[in-house]
Amino acid sequence: MSDFNKVYAVGVNAGEYLLLQETMFEQSVQMTENDLYTFDGKRKGDAWRPVSVDWLVVEGETPEKRPDIAGWGAMAFAIPERLKSAFEKGLGDCVELLPLDLNGETWYALNILGEQDAIDPEKTEYNMKNGRVNRVRRFKKLVLDRDKITCGTLFKVKGSGLFTFSTDEPGSLYDICSQLDLRGLKFTAVELG
Question: Domain extents for the chain?
C-alpha cells in the first residue's frame, strides 16, 4: 500500500500550454497498417515503435508556452528526455516510458499500467441523467477508498473514465512536479474515504 495523505486528479493545463498530437504522416501510417496506438493499461514493450508527434496548432487558439510535461491526445502525458531518469526512479513499475519523436527531440509517453478498483461506492455521488450515469460528467462527488490505492505514484481508477490520479507520496507525479517545479499539468484534490 502507498504512503500518502492526499490524492489528486491530474489533467493538462490546455488553455495555457501547448499539447502534443501525432503528425499527419504518423496517423496515416497507423491507419494504413491498422495499428492504432491505445493506452489500455497493458505493457507495450517491444511492440512499440517511436511515434512521430508535433505541437498541436489551432490558428488563433494555440497557447505559446511549451510545457515541461505535455498532454498527448485525450489521456496521455509526455515528458522530454531530460526528465526520464527522475520519472523512472519515482514512478517505477506504475508506468512504462515509451519513446516519441518530436521533430528529432526524444520525448516519452507515460503508459500508465493497470487500473485500480478504488472508487468508494458508499460515498461517491454519481451524476444521473434520464436514470443513467451521465457519460460526460460521471460524478457529482468522487470519493476514492484510501485502502484500495496500491500504486499511488500515477494511476487510473476503474469506472472513472479518462481521469488520471496521483497521490502526494514521495516519487509520485505530484511530488516530482512539485520538487522540480514542472509546468503543464493541473492537480485537483479528490476526497478520500
Answer: 7-192
Pairing status of strand 76-80 against strand 70-72: antiparallel
Instruction: Give the Cα separation of 118 and 140 in Å (integer).
Output: 17
pLDDT along the chain (193 residues), means of 10: 87 90 61 62 85 86 88 89 95 93 95 94 88 81 94 93 92 96 96 93
Distance of CA 123 to CAs 68, 111, 130, Å?
35, 29, 21
Alpha-carbon span 162 to 27, nearest angstrom? 22
Provide φ and ψ at 103, rounded to 5°. 50, 45
How far CA 190 is from CA of 6, 20, 46, 144, in Å, comes to 8, 26, 35, 7
